[in-house]
Amino acid sequence: MTEIDYYELLEVDRGADASTIKSAYRKLAMKYHPDKNGGCKDNEAKFKAVNEAYDCLKDPQKRAAYDRFGHAAFQNGGGGGSAHDFAGFSDIFESVFGEFMGGGRGGRAQPRRGADLRYDMEITLEEAFHGKSADITIDVTASCDSCHGTGARPGTHAHTCSTCAGHGKVRAQQGFFVVERACPMCNGSGQVIEDPCRDCRGDGRVERTKTLTVNIPAGVDEGTRVRMSGEGEAGPRGAPPGDLYIFLHVKRHAIFEREGTTLFARAPISFTTAALGGTLAIPGLDGRTHELKIPAGIQSGKQLRHRGAGMPVLQGRGHGDLVIQIDVETPTRLSTRQRELLEMFRETETGDECPEAQGFFARLRNAFAGD
């Protein structure tokens, strides 16, 4: 399952302040609003995704939970505002701020979720264009097969900690304040293992190397994050696992540069082609050759656009554009015949052939006419 990072959706940095996030949201909401896109389903989906991202990041508590847990922070709810959704979020809020505020609600110790993992993958621009499936190998702590993650030797089980009565926390009175901390006997788990598993030594986890298949969708960009749910570190003693996040890095291409879904390239042409016009054939990342018409009299720096030949839209339909910047190349090696022909051409010049040059020298003369 691929989930686009909320910060990427709003096109802001993770450290962006509230005003920056709000400004980015307003810009994108206006761009993708259904009323302005003629009922386009892709833009409607993008509009909903942008609203979902802003709804999370504008709320300091939700943002704090998202920064720590990612999309997993809201897996048990969908923003509908039900009591179940609120309870799920309050559990996450407590796990973020509970220790600072002096502990939780006094219930039994909850199993700690396994840590999330990060994997950096480098891909080519062609692979970003078409998408790909790749196998990766990672070293990770996985649930112990011998004890099924319990930490206790097969045939035995853990007992409720007598010190904290299974709560995982103990309290101490200090003046007017009650300080709550993890139970020193069970290390906050609420359970005591008297006969630990020999393979995992009571932790319920073992080190393991595993191979995973990562599906990279077409249209990904530098820094796109692909989430693999439940493929992170196993939680201690049967707790839920974390997630694995694949961060993508796109190699520099020899010809094309990218900005969003637009591909840019520079193409040198001869001065005769620039003067007379012609056709430019550019091989695209899609495997096809795209022809661009060069108008007569084109100047260096002029850009030609071929619509629909750029990068695919991530999780959408259509492609961006291919933009070619023209560089007119002056010949440096001429044959005798070529030089003769150019001399003949120069003899027939009136100045009207190059109006910009003619205008420049006219302004130059006028500027110094009074000296």
Automatic annotation (TrEMBL):
CDD domains recorded: DnaJ (cd06257), DnaJ_C (cd10747), DnaJ_zf (cd10719)
Top-rank taxon: Bacteria
Residues reported in the UniProt entry to bind Zn(2+) 1: C144, C147, C197, C200
GO annotation, biological process: DNA replication; protein refolding; response to heat
Cofactor note: Binds 2 Zn(2+) ions per monomer.
Annotated domain remarks: The J domain is necessary and sufficient to stimulate DnaK ATPase activity. Zinc center 1 plays an important role in the autonomous, DnaK-independent chaperone activity of DnaJ. Zinc center 2 is essential for interaction with DnaK and for DnaJ activity.
Name the UniProt record assigns to this protein: Chaperone protein DnaJ
Organism phylogeny: Bacteria, Pseudomonadati, Pseudomonadota, Alphaproteobacteria, Sphingomonadales
Primary gene name: dnaJ
